[in-house]
Specification:
Length: 380
């Protein structure tokens, strides 16, 4: 995958703003996606609303109440885009995308929440148009497009790597009733593998028994298996016995809150059991985690995590109060495979401890995760 590259482009002259814009454009970049699709990513300070028009040979993105900044787009090679320009039309910013083809198909769109160093991102994926299938006009809003519209086709087996956290000498957190995190998450992981296999996916477990694995090794397994999605399963603990509910995390070098930071430190500490220090990742993984590659993986991970959180809520699974998706520097998520860490609930809460070790609730969790994987657009 290429999400950005080297390109030079002259910006249109933008007059000084005579209004107080609520939003502003932070960056614009292009990329190439599977299926000969072009990706356009527009990063904004606040959640954008937008409309799209399709003059011959162009795509115009209009962002109301938005100021145009003097920015240089990052242009990847091999896209359908020749150049990108900017103009200010009243209180609206316009991004004029000059295409290499006469028309394009209506873009698949999504909005990603802020993640670490990135802010809101409007993502558009599109291919060259052919005859009646080419889009000529379209109007839409952020709320109407904040989800993927394509599920995994049965004709292609996507690879899911399921990571049951902890194991062996590392029990993870332990509930008041003696329930061990490593036991709960392994049981859920095995059930999840069975369900995903039955749904037509190719799945692998990082561990299938009570084995201790270092965090970098878990990430490495996802790489070796050429995973399309990595799901790391955990159970939480909190000093407050009243705290309960699931939470979902993606990788970020900056934690979204103090609790996320402490949780990441706790999970990462597992690698320090009986070792001199935290092992360095392999050279290949370090190279793969260059800024641009990490940016692309982060966007895809955020899309999955947001969809997964929504499915959990719609399935009647209680959520931990706070952000829908949180971010923290989890070592296990450091790979080129998009993924998320799912805290299934709190073993420190007596009622939730009972739920987490029950077959019925584990099956409920598994059903929700399977639905989230089916909803994920692997081709974006």
């Amino acid at each position: 995958m290429k999400i950005s590259g080297v390109g030079a482009l002259g910006l249109m002259m933008v007059p000084r703003m005579a209004f107080a814009a609520r939003n502003s454009i932070r960056s614009v970049r292009t990329g190439v996606q599977p299926g000969n699709k072009t990706r356009l990513v527009i990063e904004t300070a606040v959640r954008p609303t937008y409309s799209l028009t399709f003059p011959d040979g162009q795509l115009i993105v209009r962002l109301p109440n938005t100021a145009v900044n003097q920015i240089t787009p990052k242009m990847a090679g091999g896209t359908l885009i020749n150049s990108i320009g900017f103009s200010q039309s009243g209180d609206a910013a316009q991004i004029i995308v000059n295409l290499k083809c006469l028309s394009i198909q209506k873009p698949q769109t999504m909005i990603l929440e802020p993640n670490g160093d990135t802010e809101y991102r409007l993502v558009l994926d599109f291919a060259a148009g052919t005859g009646a299938t080419a889009a000529k006009t379209a109007g839409t809003s952020a709320a109407a497009n904040n989800k993927s519209t394509t599920s995994a086709p049965a004709s292609k087996k996507y690879t899911i790597v399921i990571d049951a956290g902890h194991g062996g000498k590392d029990p993870g957190c332990i509930g008041k009733g003696g329930t061990k995190e490593k036991t709960v998450v392994l049981a859920v992981a095995k059930k999840l593998k069975t369900k995903l296999d039955a749904a037509g996916f190719k799945t692998y477990l990082t561990r299938s028994d009570d084995t201790y694995l270092k965090l970098a090794e878990r990430a490495s397994i996802a790489e070796r298996r050429k995973g399309d999605l990595f799901i790391s399963l955990h159970a939480n603990a909190n000093p407050s016995r009243a705290m309960k509910g699931f939470s979902i995390y993606t990788l970020s070098e900056k934690a979204s809150d103090e609790e996320a930071k402490k949780l990441a430190e706790s999970e990462n500490a597992a690698d320090k059991i009986d070792v001199d220090g935290f092992s360095d990742f392999s050279k290949d993984i370090r190279i793969a985690l260059s800024a641009l590659q990490q940016h692309a993986v982060a966007e895809m991970s955020e899309e999955y995590a947001a969809s997964c959180a929504k499915v959990f809520r719609n399935s009647g699974i209680e959520a931990q109060p706070g952000a829908k998706v949180r971010h923290a520097p989890f070592a296990v998520l450091r790979s080129t495979v998009p993924g998320a860490l799912v805290e299934l609930g709190h073993l420190s809460n007596a009622s939730e401890e009972k739920l987490l070790k029950s077959d019925s609730h584990q099956n409920k969790l598994v059903t929700a995760i399977v639905r989230s994987v089916k909803n994920y657009n692997f081709d974006v």
